[in-house]
Write a structure and sequence with these properties.
The complex is a heterodimer. Chain A is α+β, with helices and mostly antiparallel strands. Helix content of chain A is about 20%, strand content about 40%. Chain B is about 30% helix and about 25% strand. The longest helix of chain B has 29 residues, at about 270-300. Classes of the chains: A alpha+beta, B alpha+beta. The interface between A and B is large, with 40 and 45 residues.
């Protein structure tokens, strides 16, 4: 990343990769409050169910997760508590990010695609989540902020993972 | 019972001493699962789908129901057909898509073509077959032995001699009525299904779906969240009752502080929401009178229909069905149900509400999944620790929604089926 950081026109794929790898690291280290700060004030996080069109809206389709910024902050708070039983003690995860591509440069944001494989281990059971991520990234203060993160799972529903209690 | 040998009952019941225990063997024993397949899933009425999922002629879905592969389709005459999804010729699954719209179904193996009612239309090399081949019942896809509907909830049974669906549902129909009467133009399944699985015995989800007792501890973090939402709660306390509906069906009916799109307002929904909720309430009063309108609007219902259908009318309405794949593994399908005529505003809040609590990405269901899986792990100790206790509230005149009457109703019926003992 250049000293001044990426601009909308100047952002390279490696700038975006650096940002996404950093995001993955925060998630794997369970630094969720810091991860939350990567989002804009109007940022959203979506995990649609797996039988929907790619651009489906959570206003009229069923999702697994459709958080606005407030609910996302509550999700993070919840996951840091002992009473988030599904993640106590915290599972171990590894978020792998690949196939990063800037799809479009829009008026004030980048439309970015990546592929992901995320492993989650708890109680001797390892689950694999895989699919594609679509990001709307806004250049800000020398880095990016996430306006939308949409995780498109490639599995048939959540069989056999059973839940998305981690952030994908 | 001194060993984990064959059982003739899974229950230990003493009404006078207020003892009701369930053997943990019922959650781990492959022989029990075999008996369940034969005595429950091959005999009871099982939910296959909602009529709204097949809106137009030609619409179809494929589902696993009771261990069978089912093709559920609406034909050109608007009839719904539940067909065993296997080619009468050599057995291949004829339809391989999860959903869609079709004029006919063709088995790709040898090219036989069937109508939306499963009737054989043509097959390559017809001249090599006798003239009446198409008319033979064995030449067409076979329908499920029994198919009946109640208020757009469609059920199938693999027992030709099963009692009628209405008789089977009994008083549960009254609760389906209360749920369906939310809508003037009928209830519909909203786009999309949540498909997930739990590494636990399927009966643990039956218990969990009608368990009012676990909310305060299992869902502590969800309740924290509701408190953090400004205006997230109505000024209403938890309270209500449980009812045994016979045949293993049961229901909880209770008040709760969360918002209900039909129709309990919470401050977070603002003035716009207040007007909309008032309009919905007025409409209910007009149609049903004040008393029933209040029941529809302000009471929650967790309705369990034996053996594996849950219709929870809570902060949103969910329809959920689940099957065992092994003693310690189940698969679950869940949908959102909503009034057809609902405004965009209400639909949006309904779905927002739904995801807060429900489903494998919500603030509550993942913790239920964890609880069920932890129970299943605990049952590794079944040789030494053999019994579950579900006696809470025994002997009470009016069991509370957070007692365990509804689970006893399920287990009693389950026991009658599996061990073929009279109730």
């Amino acid at each position: 990343m250049s000293a001044a950081g990426p601009s909308l026109e100047g952002a390279s794929r490696s700038d975006v990769e650096e940002f996404l790898f950093r995001e993955a690291e925060l998630l794997d280290e369970w630094r969720l409050p810091e991860w939350l700060e990567l989002f804009t004030d109007d940022g959203v996080y979506y995990v649609p169910v797996t039988d929907l069109p790619v651009d489906a809206s959570p206003d009229n389709y069923l999702f697994y997760v459709a958080d606005d910024r407030f609910r996302l902050s509550e999700r993070v708070k919840r996951l840091m508590k002992r009473t988030a039983h599904a993640e106590f003690p915290h599972s171990k995860t590894r978020h792998l990010v690949s196939n990063v591509r800037i799809r479009q440069r829009l008026e004030n944001e980048l439309d970015v695609a990546s592929a992901f494989v995320t492993y989650r281990t708890k109680d001797g059971v390892t689950d694999t989540f895989f699919g594609g991520n679509r990001y709307r990234l806004v250049p800000q203060n020398g880095s990016f902020r996430i306006r939308e993160k949409r995780c498109l799972l490639d599995s048939d529903g959540l069989r056999s993972q059973g839940r998305v209690s981690i952030i994908l | 019972m001194d060993s984990l040998g064959p059982m003739n009952t899974a229950l230990q019941v003493d009404e006078a001493k207020r003892i009701f225990k369930v053997s943990r063997q019922a959650f781990v024993d492959p022989a029990i699962l075999e008996a369940e397949r034969k005595e429950i899933f091959d005999k009871c009425w099982l939910y296959v789908g909602h009529s709204s999922e097949l809106a137009k002629p030609g619409d179809f879905v494929t589902r696993q129901v009771g261990g069978r592969s089912i093709l559920f389709a609406r034909d050109a005459k608007e009839n719904l057909n539940a067909i065993l999804n296997t080619c009468p010729h050599r057995g291949a699954q004829v339809c391989r898509e999860k959903r869609g719209n079709a004029k006919a179904f063709q088995c790709f193996y040898h090219g036989w073509v069937f109508g939306l009612d499963g009737m054989l239309r043509s097959q390559p090399g017809e001249t090599s077959y006798p003239a009446d081949f198409k008319e033979r019942s064995t030449s067409s896809m076979q329908r499920v032995p029994r198919f009946e509907s109640y208020r757009d909830f469609n059920f199938i049974s693999f027992d030709r001699n099963a009692e009628s669906l209405a008789t089977y549902l009994g008083p549960a129909t009254e609760y389906l009525d209360v749920i369906c009467d939310q809508a003037e133009a009928g209830m519909v399944i909203v786009g999309g299904s949540q498909e997930y699985s739990i590494r636990a015995n399927w009966k643990l989800l039956t218990e969990n779906s009608i368990d009012g007792y676990h909310a305060l501890t299992t869902h502590a973090s969800y309740l924290d969240y509701l408190k953090n939402c400004s205006g997230g709660l109505a000024n209403v306390g938890f309270g209500g009752s449980a009812r045994d509906l016979g045949n293993g069906h049961a229901v909880l009916e209770y008040k709760a502080p969360w918002g209900r799109p039909v129709a309990q307002w919470i401050p977070a929904w603002g003035e716009r929401g207040k007007q909309e909720i008032a309009r919905l309430n007025d409409n209910l009063v007009e149609r049903f009178g004040r008393e029933r309108a209040d029941r529809i609007a302000t009471f929650n219902r967790n309705l369990f229909i034996f053996p594996n259908l849950v219709v929870n009318d809570i902060m949103a309405v969910t329809v959920r069905t689940y099957y065992p794949a092994a003693p310690d593994f189940m698969t679950i399908s869940a949908w959102a149900l909503a009034p057809r005529e609902e405004s965009e505003w209400a639909r949006k809040y309904r779905l927002f509400n739904f995801l807060e609590f429900l489903g494998p990405g919500g603030f509550a269901t993942p913790d239920d999944v964890e609880a069920l899986e932890q129970c299943q792990r605990g049952y590794r100790n079944t040789s030494e620790v053999r019994w579950n206790d579900i006696s809470k509230g025994m002997g009470k005149q009016n069991p509370s929604y957070d007692d365990e009457l509804q689970m006893r109703a399920f287990w009693s019926r389950w026991n009658e089926h599996v061990f073929r003992v009279a109730g």
